[in-house]
Amino acid sequence: MRLIVPTAPGGGYDLVGRLLAEKLSSELGQSMVVENRTGSGTVVGTQAAAAAAPDGYTLLVGGLANIAFTPGLYDKLPYNPVTDFVPVALAGSFSYTLIARKDLPLSTLQEVIDYARANPGKLTIATGGAGTGQHVAAALLKSLASVNILEVPYKGAQPAYTDLFGGRVDLFFDNTATVRPFLEGERVKAIVTSNASRDPLLPHVPFGREAGLPGLVLESWIGIFAPSQTPSVVLDKLRAAMGKVMQQPDLRKRLETSGVRPLNMNLKDTERYVKAEAEKWPQFLRQAGIKAE
Q: Can you give the pTM of this predicted structure?
């Protein structure tokens, strides 16, 4: 068996994919090779999985980026992420946290919004690449609050942090797990998380609804997908294996340690959730004018 990860080694998709491959291999009694297929964001790897024989021997690490974002980022895709794949199961999710340079004289989301409304274009927010969760979270904030905050694009998070630490940019949305050590070191301060409830990693930081912006919800979810024509008997076997794997305490602990909140959703809820996300985000990205670079 092979599990295609449509991103480079070292990221969230790769981490979750390798953890699941190890566990699924043992549960199914089959060797499972993790294959990183990169290119055009997540398009190349996802296309490779879509073109594979639907026999259960090729699976895909799918998530918010390649299932829900790509249809909005590209005018034309060589596959349809909704009709060409079916979810086996979702494994986990992570949120984003809006952080500010430590000396910014604004400490709450309402203060940020009020200042931005009174001073259009004066606040700056870093974005880590077109169509990334960091970029979409920033666009979502601007859209919901109807504010003009100047986006400063960076090629990745590291240069964004360099300027945030140096006081050359005001705000940045990033993965909550990545943000936490910088908060603990008091190099930045947290404004709000993108969860639908308090994030266990940052229990003292308000989420969008608490902070006065109910629609500020963006959680990056990751799971295992199969080509849509995979026989139901094969899907049933894969789903049963994933169900057992996701109950293993050591896997859940390893996910949590990495900043990923384990998910435990039944098939109907999973299908409903993926469908809703795949309808919501392409529409938002088009309205926001966000395109792949």
A: 0.90
